[in-house]
Amino acid sequence: MKATRRSLWVLLDRYPALPACTALLLLVAGGTLWVPRFATDINIRNVLTQIVPLGLAAIGQSIVVLTGGIDMSLGGTVTLTVVVASLFMKNSVALGVGAALAAALAVGLLNGYGVVRLKLPPFLMTMAIMFALEGVNLILRPTPGGFVPSSFRLLATTRYGIVPLGTLILAAVALVMIVVMRRSRHGLHLYAVGGGEERARLAGVNTGRVKWQAYLWSSLFACLAGLFLAARTGAGDRFIGEPYNMDSVTAVVLGGTSLAGGVGGLEGTLAAAALLGLLNNTLNLLKVLPYWQWILKGVVMIAALGFYGRLRMARRSA
Amino acid sequence: MNAAPLLQVDQVSKRFGGVQALSGVSLSLCAGELHALMGENGAGKSTLIKVIVGVHAPDGGALHWKGQPIRITSPLEAQRLGISVIHQESTMIADLSVTQNFALGREPVRAAGWVDWRAARAELLETADQLGVSIDPDARAGDLTVAQRKIVEICKAVSQAADLIIMDEPTAALTASDVAVLMQLIGRLKAAGKAILYVSHRMAEVRALADQITVLKDGQLVGTRPAADVTTDQIVAMMVGRELGQIYPSPPEQPPGAPALEVKGFSLPGAFSAVNLTVRSGEIVTIAGLQGQGQRQLAQALYGALPARAGQVRVHGVPVRLRSPQEAIRHGIGFTSDDRQGEALVPILSVRENIALASLRLRQRFGFVQEPAEASLVQRLVNELRIKTASPEAAVNTLSGGNQQKVVLARWLADQIKVLILLEPTAGVDVGARAEIYRLLRDLTARGVGILVVTSDLPEALGLSDRILVMYRGRLQAEFERAAFSEAAVMTAATGQSGKGGSQP
């Protein structure tokens, strides 16, 4: 038992995305076989579009979690970018995008300030920012509305064959970020801070700056997710980002990244984000009520935490 | 030998709150020399190192590096100057690979922040080769042994072109054969012209390696001597500077009573196995050993803070189950952690509240604390234990380490315990307070309490206990009666060879 667990760990070390990928493939196979309308062009296109914002948001969340933090304001930042974009896009697309980006990065700076300078626990700091953002979003956009020009909406509607443009963008961004995390100095520092902040500091890493950068990454990816949502819905809606808080954390956990930081990677997160999107879609096709979907999500998360937790314990005693 | 010193420490002083950690300490380190820094725990060795590498700014005095006066404000700056530290605890990040750890903080970078991993790896292998050691560059750091980690850290220091390498008890957790490997490596570093500041308690290593020996005591410089000119006894005399009998109370005259704590076949996989031991009423038994041999977990399991998997525990002959600290307290087992701030005390509560915590149930009526009774009890204990505090209402984290430990002990004095288990009771406690703590423990044994002390401080084990048990890799390796106490024999057993003069339990 111990030996199999240990070899499983070696495998997981090399391929952290393995459990999520396996589950994803099983779901695809099962869906194709047994779920009506699963493997139709329209449905595939739908799923590929649906996973884009979650995939983007989850990349940002992963980076923060890998440093040992967490960003509970990510959903609020997604909403903020949608709302700000919907306010300024009527003037020009560039202004809308620029304003949304500036707003999102301001949130990242603020989170970094709270965590690094004020030394607040990341969970509480980002949660406080989330509450504040709810208010800001409500002030800026009390009711759904605003305008997103059709030129910008092409971002969500263009597709090549069965593959939407958004999915290609997600894939390209993900690929770049995976290489950054694995091969660059910045990536190494992010992992090192999560693996042992004090030790990283002693080795000469500017840990404060690295954590700050992590929160900037997460707000940048929240912004990208928000811009994609703005293109897809064509309007600003102050509730639109809400699901991305918990869903991004769920994707990180399902993907095998440790909430304690330092272990895991974007590959697993992305597979898990796809898994979550597909699971949602499958349950919808099976006409399962959303309430049950939430319960199922909770169960899956507990199962994943238990699974990885036990493996890590086995490794430590091995 | 006569070359200008690489680093000169000149009359350095440092104060923390009410404690003078260093006063007017001077030291000079030369290239190609190993300078041993010795002294009891709390003598100021760590503080001196931290001042040298810029963790603490000195209150007075100066540092000269290669003849120039300098102010070092951070470990990073020290590193750039050519001063590296090998800390006692590994600073490698367990989930990164050896190469990643080696490169961390000074990565060979190509354009745009991409690390040249091939170069990093090549540099690691080259350094290892140059030092005559072998390293697996792709291993996960957490999977290495303690000795392998030390070797990687030394390679890192060497490749950083360090002129001065400071080693803080590098052999504290090593086995004898690993120590030999490390000593060879250190010999090569000396030959390569590095200056080494070497902190160790192990006389044999210091005798074998050191060119100069400096002894600190209570934050003051006792003296620096060429190693060739002093005997081991002289060094010990410099370190201790007082009769051992002065800080350790004499053992009781009457023999210990009936067994207070009996443990049979006690096991926790991965920590300790098949532990049998007995502590009698009125007896102080010490578990000695290198750090990390499972003694910490054993103590925690005996207090119900960790779940043992097998074994029997009896208190005063009655079998007990220890599933939680609450249960342990109910059966009369008290415990003090080595992590005073984290586990033993609630730092922001007052002295009174901290003392009352564990013994609340004694003074409750209908679930309410009997405050006047509590206040008078606490006042009595504060006086009796000479706890130096502005008032019983002062927050406990304003007290010095020694006085905090007294608060922890006061807790168990207030309660009627049968067995007291102490983890590293005098870690970070100054000598004066240590003597008082030892006296307190003897007072407790006089009342019939059986005491089990876990300590990695060998002089403490030898001075304080009636019996010493030595733990090695999760097993009790040897047992020594007071008549058979010797530093060498205990150390031999602690490093895995079976103890001479001791019996196998």
Question: Describe it for me?
Answer:
The complex is a heterodimer of chains A (318) and B (505). With 318 residues, chain A is an all-alpha fold. Chain A is built from 14 helices and two strands; from the N terminus they run αααααααββααααααα. Chain A has a two-stranded antiparallel ribbon. In chain A, a hairpin with a 2-residue loop joins strand 1 and strand 2. Chain A is globular, with a radius of gyration of 20 Å. Chain A starts with a helix and ends with a helix. The model of chain A has no long low-confidence stretch (mean pLDDT 91). In chain B, strands 6-7-8-3-9-10 form a six-stranded mixed β-sheet, sandwiched between helices. Chain B is globular and about 70 Å long. The model of chain B is unreliable at 499-505 (pLDDT under 50). Chains A and B meet through helix 9 and helix 10 of A and helix 2 and helix 3 of B.
Secondary structure: elements and pairs:
The complex is a heterodimer of chains A (318) and B (505).
Chain A: H1 2-14, H2 18-34, H3 41-66, H4 74-88, H5 93-117, H6 122-140, H7 150-157, E1 159-160, E2 163-164, H8 165-183, H9 185-195, H10 197-202, H11 207-233, H12 243-254, H13 266-285, H14 290-317
Antiparallel strand pairs in A: 1-2
Helix pairs in contact in A: 1-14, 2-13, 3-8, 3-9, 3-11, 3-12, 3-13, 4-5, 4-6, 4-11, 4-12, 5-6, 5-11, 7-11, 8-9, 9-11, 12-13
Chain B: E1 7-16, E2 19-29, E3 34-38, H1 45-52, E4 60-65, E5 68-70, H2 75-81, E6 83-86, H3 98-103, H4 117-130, H5 146-159, E7 164-168, H6 176-191, E8 195-199, H7 203-209, E9 212-217, E10 220-226, H8 232-240, H9 244-247, E11 259-268, E12 272-280, E13 284-288, H10 295-302, E14 310-315, E15 318-320, H11 325-330, E16 333-336, H12 340-344, H13 351-357, E17 364-365, E18 368-369, H14 371-384, H15 401-414, E19 419-423, H16 431-446, E20 450-454, H17 458-464, E21 467-472, E22 475-481, H18 487-494
Parallel strand pairs in B: 3-8, 3-9, 6-7, 7-8, 13-20, 13-21, 16-19, 19-20
Antiparallel strand pairs in B: 1-2, 1-4, 4-5, 9-10, 11-12, 11-14, 14-15, 17-18, 21-22
Helix pairs in contact in B: 4-5, 5-6, 13-14, 13-15, 14-15, 15-16
